[in-house]
Amino acid sequence: MPKNKTAATIDVDYDPLVRELESLRRLVHSTHEDFSACDAKDGVLGILRLCPGLSLDQWPTLAEEYGLREWLALPFGEGDYPFLEHLQQTLEELAYQTEHDPLTSLFNRRAFERSLEQELERAQRAGSSLSVVMLDLDDFKTVNDTYGHPCGDEVLVTLGRLMLTQTRRYDVAARLGGEEFALLLPGTGLIKARAMVERLLARMRETQIPCPGVDSTISVTCSAGLVTYKSMAEGTPPDLIALADKALYSAKAAGKDTVVTAPLQDVAAPSKATLVETNEKKFLFTGN
Fold first, then answer.
1. Residue 121 is a catalytic residue
2. How many Å apart are CA 35 and CA 24, to the nearest integer?
3. Residue 25 CB neighbours (<10 A)
4. Exactly one of 179, 206, 234, 277 is catalytic; which is it?
């Protein structure tokens, strides 16, 4: 195996180490099902390999180059502090990955639903308003079919970036999956929330998005459904999501590229009629 670019900065021949790690990785992957079927009493196996001459600062480059990001490097003989600092950084990176969408860096569905539950409880306790917005890119399937999935990814990233820049520091922006996004606006009433969402939709409409392999830029719109919780009303996270989802459905039916708000009185007594059938939504959003 030829020396890689990292070897020039490391005064140690670690090619034998790389070969050992690659062989071990293949072994672990090939027996993954056997490992996952082990009982809890079998415990967890940790594998230790000492690497003289390799520093903790050099490890990230090696791990990135050889696909060893799942390996945890720990220094020995340097005292406790460097070890604890590195372990803390690793844990923070893992926590970030479990709560964020890898493409857009927005919160994922799990983190959004947890934040909604917390903010709703805070609004009920403090007597404040809370607005929930569901957003969906218009004709996104057409973008993927016409320009390719890399272009679709650029569209998703663009909307994610606008959601972060057009909202406040304490607002919550999330990608729930596919082309579906959501916003959580604490302490925000209906008028202010609608104005904020309309600005976001306008920015998305005006943005020219460059796509890989496409000579010209493209523009894409999105639709939004908005519901505002008032402190005197009853409501649960699923109620608010269902109402915002119904408003989004109405925005799509009204011609897309617009915001529709759920009536305030609906928050106090949401009914099963607010829930949109999955197949009905799929047809309206994608045409399939």
1. no
2. 14
3. 15
4. 179
